[in-house]
Amino acid sequence: xxxxxxxxxxxxxxxxxxxxxxxxxxxxxxxxxxxxxxxxxxxxxxxxxxxxxxxxxxxxxxxxxxxxxxxxxxxxxxxxxxxxxxxxxxxxxxxxxxxxxxxxxxxxxxxxxxxxxxxxxxxxxxxxxxxxxxxxxxxxxxxxxxxxxxxxxxxxxxxxxxxxxxxxxxxxxxxxxxxxxxxxxxxxxxxxxxxxxxxxxxxxxxxxxxxxxxxxxxxxxxxxxxxxxxxxxxxxxxxxxxxxxxxxxxxxxxxxxxxxxxxxxxxxxxxxxxxxxxxxxxxxxxxxxxxxxxxxxxxxxxxxxxxxxxxxxxxxxxxxxxxxxxxxxxxxxx
Amino acid sequence: xxxxxxxxxxxxxxxxxxxxxxxxxxxxxxxxxxxxxxxxxxxxxxxxxxxxxxxxxxxxxxxxxxxxxxxxxxxxxxxxxxxxxxxxxxxxxxxxxxxxxxxxxxxxxxxxxxxxxxxxxxxxxxxxxxxxxxxxxxxxxxxxxxxxxxxxxxxxxxxxxxxxxxxxxxxxxxxxxxxxxxxxxxxxxxxxxxxxxxxxxxxxxxxxxxxxxxxxxxxxxxxxxxxxxxxxxxxxxxxxxxxxxxxxxxxxxxxxxxxxxxxxxxxxxxxxxxxxxxxxxxxxxxxxxxxxxxxxxxxxxxxxxxxxxxxxxxxxxxxxx
Lengths: 334, 321
Ligand SMILES: Nc1ncnc2c1ncn2[C@@H]1O[C@H](COP(=O)(O)OP(=O)(O)OP(=O)(O)O)[C@@H](O)[C@H]1O
Ligand SMILES: Nc1ncnc2c1ncn2[C@@H]1O[C@H](COP(=O)(O)OP(=O)(O)OP(=O)(O)O)[C@@H](O)[C@H]1O
Ligand code: SF4
Ligand SMILES: [Mg+2]
Ligand SMILES: [Mg+2]
Description:
The complex is a heterodimer.
Chain A: E1 4-16, H1 21-25, E2 31-43, E3 47-51, H2 58-66, E4 73-78, E5 81-82, H3 88-97, E6 98-101, H4 115-125, H5 132-145, H6 151-154, H7 164-176, E7 182-186, H8 194-211, E8 214-219, H9 222-228, E9 231-236, E10 239-245, H10 246-251, H11 256-264, H12 306-310, E11 317-320, E12 323-325, H13 330-333
Parallel strand pairs in A: 3-8, 3-9, 6-7, 7-8
Antiparallel strand pairs in A: 1-2, 1-4, 4-5, 9-10, 10-12, 11-12
Chain B: E1 3-15, E2 18-31, E3 35-39, H1 46-53, E4 61-70, E5 73-74, H2 80-87, E6 92-95, H3 109-120, H4 125-138, H5 155-167, E7 173-177, H6 185-202, E8 205-210, H7 213-219, E9 222-227, E10 230-236, H8 237-241, H9 249-257, H10 296-300, E11 306-309, E12 312-314
Parallel strand pairs in B: 3-8, 3-9, 6-7, 7-8
Antiparallel strand pairs in B: 1-2, 1-4, 4-5, 9-10, 10-12, 11-12
The complex binds adenosine-5'-triphosphate (2 copies), iron/sulfur cluster and magnesium ion (2 copies).
Iron/sulfur cluster binds at residues 249, 285, 287-288, 291, 293-295, 298, 303, 316-318 of chain B.
């Protein structure tokens, strides 16, 4: 499990914001810095969790890796090859190997298509399957993998005839149909309730082990990330602030932001109902259009000192084996 | 308010496909100053219960049986006019599921809050604005948000505005339907803290609806577990989450499916299958098709609510022995 399958280096995506007339005349441009210098490696057969609050740039990172959008800067390597810029043919081959499960299963399936048509779409794009018969057989096979069985019961259904959990299974089947090796799963279980969530994650884990897949698991839910992922990266305003194995990161967090996230997570245990929970950080995440100077977490950080406000942002540094953190003060605070 | 007593309430949806038995004989009590948590999987009737309490079923729903007594008065016997003048928003308010995303995008917060409030009670604009500001401050917002549009506000701020609007007519009972589900954990914790502070300051009683047992552990004094339109279990926070654990097989499985951050588990349990179709709910115990402890009797006879210790009731035949 040591071979690196995917690596991103200093990846950036800045979206231009609309300018006022004054800004336009002065030639000023403002940017939404959605992803602003992200680097990580994912090993073959690994589940890598990318977690963070709404708007921190998780989906944008996923879309960059899927090559659905062009990066503003940085590089992407797949199996050691630079795939940042690809010819149309190479891109097509890449898109067969790297698949994405989208955040919203309602929006990602054409409501007028029956399930076998939804599943045949990627096959047609990639010219797989000689005829409808063959495509239907492949679709049935994919449905069986995600336990929508017997597949014949589901092939002719429309997506609105499925429960939330079944719809998510169908979305997973669609990504599996091209036999990819890498899957970006963007909040695959956030729309279903807890029992269904557990069941879907178990299914995804079984498939991953069986087929030797690698996942980038995007979520805002630390509890499922701990259970599901091997390693976790915590993202804040377009940057990774901490990264480590799932157990190490949660049992021994180093960044004040990670610590605050962990403190906020509810747990099904007694004795909490009469307490007002201590939440170490104030306010909410600022806009990616106005990124604070220095450490971008400093306005909310209870431990910020002058250096944090003025020095350039702390880079991710190795704090222990496989555990990296971007905070000037992590040692004193630990 | 002294007490809200709900007795054998039934709310059915009369659809073209048939009758959906969304609430099928639910009974419980809400005492002054307590928070009652309502949990269960999607579709088990939590939101339907909230609308029933306000006697405000969503079409094609109708309350077909039961009583809802607020300090002795059965509110199901009141007419629309009486309900509007005496009950809804006056004594009982509801923060609807997803309401924060239903603020109208083209109006300022001032306009939307003003309209809601003036439609319920006549008062001078200045007085209304002063009250709005008072309640905004109470939920931790400044008057500055009044001139903003919904898209300029974060999810947490929008949820606070919805809560402030619900509190405006000084109700004693507030029903919150999944008020934190769409929010990030930090904001979720902030809103939960806010609700706890409001409960103390304003001496409110809450009904807190969610599908997440972990969130419920943080807010609810007592927990009502629903399954397929019926009560499965009611117990105190300590009884449900304490070392002896919940008593109903359904609650036990829901608990095992709840991921815990502070403890590594290799496998999450899940409840195989799906909740039954409420168009034709199964005979006997509604959980019997998915229950690992099912017995012959469970398939035929519906289990009654059995008190297994003070304040702890369970609808399961296993406890009849
Ligand atoms: N096409 C776009 N044009 C302009 N801004 C964008 C675009 N896509 C995303 N953004 C902005 O970039 C930031 C990051 O968005 P992104 O969707 O990646 O966040 P996320 O972490 O996936 O959030 P969520 O948890 O809500 O899904 C946000 O501020 C968002 O508004
Ligand atoms: N207006 C309606 N018309 C017809 N059926 C309805 C209506 N509202 C709810 N139902 C049905 O009643 C049952 C209970 O729904 P309800 O919305 O109360 O569940 P819930 O527990 O709140 O679920 P969720 O966790 O998804 O919000 C479901 O089977 C649902 O499909
Ligand atoms: S009554 Fe029977 S089927 Fe229902 S929960 Fe108890 S043991 Fe299970
Ligand atoms: Mg996203
Ligand atoms: Mg609901």
